[in-house]
Description:
Blueprint (H helix, E strand, L loop, with lengths): L2 H37 L1 E16 L5 E13 L3 E7 L11 E7 L2 E7 L8 H48 L6 H4 L2
Antiparallel strand pairs: 1-2, 1-4, 2-3, 4-5
Helix pairs in contact: 1-2
Amino acid sequence: xxxxxxxxxxxxxxxxxxxxxxxxxxxxxxxxxxxxxxxxxxxxxxxxxxxxxxxxxxxxxxxxxxxxxxxxxxxxxxxxxxxxxxxxxxxxxxxxxxxxxxxxxxxxxxxxxxxxxxxxxxxxxxxxxxxxxxxxxxxxxxxxxxxxxxxxxxxxxxxxxxxxxxxxxxxxxxxxxxx
Length: 179
């Protein structure tokens, strides 16, 4: 298998592995958030800053998302901040929120959504998209491997028939013809 053939199989396989790792990361992050929201300590927090993050490629393909920075204080641990992009766009500086945190990692707070929920729908959509990408890449890798195997069998088959015809008495080598 030469470098080009390796890329045909290895490229999609690498994409599939990357998509699966991404899906695992999203699931791990979502589960951590869910555990903190369910079992974590709760303290009051206050919005101290709002900013808009703009991203995109070119003039026509831009998107923006509002981020809210919520500050909370934990006795014995000090003041911490959490950046949240899921809070309502009507949020204003000074608005009060509840922050949940793990006592082992108080700096990793999570703003308790005012509407409830744990962001599971968004995580599910992202995971499903990554799984579809992984499945498509795996099919592509299998298809490329099958195509390469089929091409190799065609070449070997043609080579094999040439060898068989040369072994038939009287078809080429005079030393074999006397056998």
